Amino acid sequence: MQRILSGIQPTNKLHLGNYLGAIKNWVNLQNQFECFFFIVDLHAITVKQDPKILRENTLDVIKTYIALGVNPKKSIIFVQSDIKEHAELAWILNTITKISELERMTQFKDKSRQHAENINVGLFAYPVLMAADILLYNTNLVPVGEDQTQHLELSRLLANRFNQLFGDTFIIPEPFIGKQGARVMGLDDPTKKMSKGASSPNNYIALLDDPDVARKKIMKAVTDSGSEIKAADNKPALANLLTIYSLLADKTIKEIEKEYAGRGYADFKKGLAETTVKFLADFQKKFNSIGDAEAKKILKSGAEKARSVAFKKMKEIKEKIGLGF
Ligand code: TYM
Q: Of 32, 38, 233, 246, which residue is most buried, by most CB within 10 angstroms?
């Protein structure tokens, strides 16, 4: 059976982009593949974190996975820092990564601008740790949003390089990018992706936003000129709202266009707001029903399963490169 792996950072609150670009696909994939879904807390500490809030966010992300349909009976759910082999392999991969390859990474450039006071070595080597995450589990497919494509490319490059240097060791992972929702844009600016780090909360709908707040954000979302509800290349804001609507309501864009033929933006936004509010209310009900103890239990059992895979792979890697006895 082919293996899937993906993860999310426990920073701030997850938003509709994380759901539609990543987690929604995970939920479908877990029926056909062996899946590993984890929380990348070692990646999160590349920017300053409050220890107490980091822990809370980590548990919130687990609860979010489960409330959105990731099933701990089917998928292995764990926290990155519980498996020491991630950091161990990252170190090894650092030694075959060129500085110039990391300097090219657009996320590093963006984050260096956002956190100019703390451009640390971890932030620079972030994509190497991500490659370690993926390669450690013999991953075939990595379901992510479009913004992770460049990091995935680096993982493939490092896997190939290692295999050439030390013999066949790593599977070359493929990205799995959904046809729709791979790049959900900001509600306040359809030229920028929806992002946890956005300066205005009107950029995103957080999964834990109060439904009334979410409704207001949608009614405020920027739109394009014209009044027809029809997707077009020169209407990026409408295209984004249609994509969100389509994925949340499980309707095609054509069906939604037909529903709103002859009606204006106000009606369309009201419809989208209702769909979103219902989605958030259902999600939050499930989220709130999951206790900390239940989440921790899932993590403990997930870590045990992940650890045995990681341990075996690490042994193979160390043998290949002449480390230890
Ligand atoms: P992170 O935490 O920034 O994002 C988590 C997932 O959400 C997707 N995503 C989006 N998709 C569509 N539209 C958006 N606006 C949007 N914003 C975020 C991301 O593409 C991602 O799939 N480096 C990764 C975490 C990571 C990882 C891994 C992923 C670490 N190791 C190994 C896969 C495999 C990250 O920062 O994602």
A: 38
